[in-house]
Amino acid sequence: MKPSRIAILLFVTSSLLMSTACAPVLIGSAAVTGVSVAADRRSAGAVANDGVIEAKSAMHLSQTNFASSHITTTSYEGNVLLSGEIDSEASKQKATEIVKSINEVNKVYNELAVQANSSLTTRMNDSITASKVRAALLDNKQVTLTSIKVVVDRGICYLLGTVTQTEAEIISKIASRVPGVVQVVRLFTIITPEELEKRQLIDSKLQQNEAAEVTEGTTEENGKLTSEEGATEEVSVSPVKL
After folding, report:
1. DSSP one-letter code for 37
2. pTM score
3. Which of 111, 85, 84 lies closest to 96, judged by CA?
4. In terms of Cα–Cα distance, which of 57, 123, 119, 55 is closest to 94?
5. 215 in any annotated domain
6. Quick check: is 145 in a domain?
7. How far is CA 201 from the centre of its chain?
8. Lowest-confidence segment of 10-14, 22-26, 136-140, 200-204 by average pLDDT
9. CA 30: distance to chain centroid?
10. Domain tally, the chain
11. Structural domain boundaries, residue 108
12. 53-56: long-range contacts at Cβ-Cβ below 8 A with a sequence spacing of 24 or more?
């Protein structure tokens, strides 16, 4: 069986992660919460690409003059959010240019604040707030948590994902009511209910095909094993004379 493109992309992502382990630039919410690819509204390929984009963004930014900056990179279907703090407007513009140059990046939302880096206490509070937002969304039956990413910096809650207009309104309202959230910034890609249904149908077919391939491969392996066992039995059995 040939290695899939997804496996290759995931390998590249892990390699990049290791190379940026000591970098001051942080990879976004993908590093904070693990999301099942099967439950994600993005395709498996898009999930892998976003991981690569986040890792590459962190690596490229850490190799420039942003060593003292606090930057978080978060990608959803190639739309990248830069959040945190940076030292100047010139550096902020440079960060946008660097990330835009990365393959498969569609758009860059540069929400970096030109100010001193936030304190460790602030970042810990932001992490707790983000977890509370995710928990609140998880409790609501009208939205799918795996269709979005939640990032919180200095109490500002950034929401990325591909959702319907109705979902966007519900998600934003829920997030705004969470203690610790001072502002909600929506960075959604809005699709129609019909487009959502089409996506879900395609995803369902892809999952069925993948399941069929796995079943077929298992059947083939079992067939080989049975054949080998049969041959062994024929050799070991001999007629018994009384």
Report:
1. G
2. 0.72
3. 111
4. 57
5. no
6. yes
7. 21
8. 10-14
9. 5
10. 1
11. 5-195
12. 53/78, 53/80, 53/102, 53/104, 53/105, 54/27, 54/28, 54/30, 54/80, 55/12, 55/13, 55/16, 55/17, 55/20, 55/27, 56/16, 56/102
